[in-house]
Amino acid sequence: MQTGEMRNRYRLQQWTEIIRECRSSGQTVVRWCADHEVNVKSYYYWLRKIREAACESLPALSSSNQPTLVPVPSSLRRNSPRPEASQEQAAIILRTDAVTIEIHPHASTALLEQTLRILQYVR
Q1: Rounded distance, CA 61 to CA 113, Å?
Q2: What residues pair up with 101 in beta bridges, in sequence order?
Q3: In terms of pTM, does the model score above 0.85?
Q4: CA quadruple 41, 30, 24, 55: dihedral positive or negative?
Q5: Is 102 in contact with 85 (CB distance < 8 Å)?
Q6: First-residue to last-residue Cα distance in the chain
Q7: CB 46: neighbour CB atoms within 10 A?
Q8: Is 118 within 8 Å of 68 (Cβ atoms)?
Q9: What is the residue-wise DSSP string for 81-97?
Q10: Over the stretch 16-48, which tens digit does the pLDDT of each residue have?
Q11: Which secondary-structure segment (H or E) carries 83?
C-alpha cells in the first residue's frame, strides 16, 4: 500500500469518527462544531469525502449505468404490515414520497448493497 493511500485511509477514519460523534450528540451540526472548535465548512467537506469514498467502494451497477428494474411482489405493493415485520423493529427506515423501505437487522449484506445501488436513482 502506498503512503498516500494509507494517509487518505487514516484521514477518512478520523473524519468518520468526527462525523459519528457529531451525529450521535443530538446537537445540530453548527452547535456541535462550535462546541468542539470545528469549522462547519471543514465538517461538510469531510462528510462529502466520506460519502464519495463510500460510493466509490460500491461496485458499479453496469457499464451503461442505467437503472435496474426490480420486480415487487403484489403482496408488498400495499401498505399492509407483514406479521413478521411487525414483531421486529426496523434498524433503518427510508421514506420518499412514493415508497417506504424498512431494513431489518437480519438483512443480508447483498440485499443492503443492492438497495443502496437502487437508491441512487430515487429522486
Answers
A1: 10
A2: 94
A3: no
A4: negative
A5: yes
A6: 38
A7: 19
A8: yes
A9: PPHHHHTS--SEEEE-S
A10: 999 999 999 999 999 999 999 999 999 999 999
A11: helix 83-86
